[in-house]
Amino acid sequence: MVYHVIIVGGGASGLSCALTLASSRGRGWQWAEDKRYLVFDLEGSDLRKAFLKNVPGIESIAGKELLEKIRKQIESWGGVDILQEGVVRIEKKGNLFEVEGSSGKVFNAEYVVLASGFHGFDIKGLKVEVVENPKSPKPGRVMIKHENYQVDENLFVIGTLAGLSSHFTSCAGSGVEVAIEILSRYAGKRIVIHDVP
C-alpha cells in the first residue's frame, strides 16, 4: 500500500506529527482529504515511563496516559494507520520510499519522518550520518545530521533523533514543524493549521 507519509516512531514527536497531518482533513482543503498516513510504533517511547508536571497548559499526567490521549485525537481525525512493529529497512526507489516492517511487510510512501528516539539507529538502507546527540545529558545517545529537520529529499528527522532536548514540548514541536512543512508542499503554498471556532 502507498501512503503519503510514513512516520517511524510513536512518541511525542511522531504522534504530534501524525496528529498535525491528520488534522488537515475536514477543513475544505481538497488536496488534504485523500491523504493517508502510517505510524510505526513499538510503544517503546521513553515518555511512557515519565510523569509530566511541567508541560504548559496540562495538569500533571503520566506520559503513557498523554500518549494515549494523543492517539485518540489522531483516531478522531482519521486517515492514520498505526502499526505496532518496528522498521528494519528504508530505501528510496524512484519517487517513493520503500519501508519494510519487522513483520516483513513492505509499504511505500512519498515522505518518511524518522522519530525513533536517540537510543540508537539501526534501520538499514538509508545513507544518513549518525552522530552523538549533543543535548542529551547521558552519553551514548545519537542523532541524525540534518538541516532544518530535512535529512535528504522528502526524508525528515524529528524529536531526540534530530538532536533536540528530550522535553515533551521540544519533541512535539519538531513533529508539528515537519508536518506543516510537508502539508505546505502538498498545498503548494505556506500553510499553518490553527484550531479556530
Which characteristics define this entry?
single chain; 197 residues; alpha/beta; FAD/NAD(P)-binding domain; eight-stranded mixed β-sheet; two-stranded antiparallel ribbon; 12 strands; 25% helix
| Major sheet description | 8 strands, mixed
Give me the CATH architecture, please: 3-Layer(bba) Sandwich
- Oligomeric state of shown chains: single chain
Which class do the helix and strand fractions yield? alpha/beta
Tell me the CATH topology. Answer: FAD/NAD(P)-binding domain
Fraction of residues in β-strands: 25-35%
Q: What value does the Rg take, in angstroms?
A: 16 Å
Write the element-wise H/E pattern from the N-terminal end onward: EHHEEEHEEEEEEEEH
- Give average pLDDT, whole number: 92
Spans with pLDDT under 50 lasting ≥5 residues? none
What's this entry about, in short?
With about 200 residues, this protein is of the alpha/beta class. The protein has helices at about 10-20, 30-35, 65-75, 170-185; strands at about 1-10, 35-40, 50, 60, 80-85, 85-95, 95-100, 105-115, 130, 140-145, 150, 155.
Give an account of the 3D structure:
The chain is an alpha/beta fold and 197 residues long. The chain has a single domain (2-187), classed as FAD/NAD(P)-binding domain (3-Layer(bba) Sandwich), CATH 3.50.50.60. The protein is 25% helix and 27% strand. It has helices at 12-22, 30-33, 63-77, 168-187, and strands spanning 2-8, 37-40, 51-52, 61-62, 80-83, 87-93, 96-101, 106-114, 130-132, 142-144, 150-152, 155-157. Strands 1, 2, 5, 6, 7, 8, 11 and 12 form an 8-stranded mixed sheet that branches. A two-stranded antiparallel sheet has the order 3-4. A two-stranded antiparallel sheet has the order 9-10. A hairpin with a 4-residue loop joins strand 7 (96-101) and strand 8 (106-114). The chain is globular and about 45 Å long. The mean pLDDT is 92.
